[in-house]
Amino acid sequence: MARRSAPEVNAGSMADIAFLLLIFFLVTTTIEKDKGIARQLPPNEDVVDPPILKEKNVFIVNVNKSDQLLVEEELMELKDLRQAAIDFLDNGGIAAQCTYCQGRRDPESSDNPDKAVISVQNDRLTSYKMYIAVQNELVAAYNFLRNRESQRLYGWKFTEIKQQIDEGKISDSQVDNYTEKLENIQKLFPLKLSEAEPKKSGQ
C-alpha cells in the first residue's frame, strides 16, 4: 500500500496575522500612568541667614523603620495624623494674625498658617507605601482647610476646581477668573511641608 504524504500547511499568511495581532494589542492596550507626588523644588539660592522658626510653629512627624509614626514625640496611628495636622495648621494662636482660623487658639501651638511648618523625617528603611500614606494624609489636611475656605468665600471646593482645570474641563476664559481665587486660597493656607534628610536605620 502506497504511503500517503501529509498535506502541507500554508504558512504564508502567518506573518500577516501576527502583524495584525500586534497592531490590535498596541491599539487596545491601556498603559497606566505612574502617579507621583507633586512637589516643586525650591530655587537654588544661597541662603545666608536661614529664617528662625519658633519651636511651636513646627509640627514634627517621624516615621521609623517599622513604619510607626511619632508625631510631636508621641506615638500616633496613621488615621489620626490628618486631624492632628489640621488642628496644628488651623490653630491661630495669635488671633489678630488669623481671623479665619477656627482652631483652639492654643498658645503652645502654631501662631498662624503662614508660619506653620510641617517637618517630616523618615528612616532609610521606611516602606515606600508608608511614605506615600503619610504624604497623602498631610496634603489632605491642607486640602481640607483650603476647601473649607473656598467654600466659605466662593461657594465651591478648592480641590474640585483645581482638578477640573488640570483636566481641561474649564474653558480658558474662566480659568483666569478661577486662578486668582485659587491663589488667594493658597495664601491663606500655604503648603509648607519640609522633608528632613532620612535617618540611618537605628538612629
Architecture overview:
With 203 residues, this protein is α/β, with parallel strands linked by helices. It has a domain of 141 residues. It contains 5 helices and 5 strands. The chain has a 5-stranded mixed sheet with strand order 3-2-1-4-5, covered by helices on one side. Helix 2 crosses helix 3, helix 3 crosses helix 5 and helix 4 packs across helix 5. The model has no long low-confidence stretch (mean pLDDT 86).
- Mean pLDDT across every amino acid position: 86
* CA gyration radius, whole angstroms: 27 Å
Distance between the termini: 88 Å
Coarse morphology:
elongated
Total beta strands: 5
Oligomerization: single chain
The largest beta-sheet arranges its strands as: 3-2-1-4-5
Low-confidence stretches: none
Keywords: Cell membrane, Membrane, Protein transport, Transmembrane, Transmembrane helix, Transport
Main location: membrane
Family: Belongs to the ExbD/TolR family.
Pfam family, one: ExbD
Outline of the structure:
The chain is built from 5 helices and 5 strands; from the N terminus they run H-E-E-E-H-E-H-H-H-E.
Q: Secondary-structure map with pairings?
A:
Elements: H1 14-28, E1 58-63, E2 69-71, E3 74-76, H2 78-89, E4 117-122, H3 128-154, H4 158-166, H5 172-188, E5 193-195
Parallel strand pairs: 1-4, 4-5
Antiparallel strand pairs: 1-2, 2-3
Helix pairs in contact: 2-3, 3-5, 4-5
Structural features:
cell membrane; alpha/beta; ExbD; ExbD/TolR family protein; elongated; 203 residues; single chain
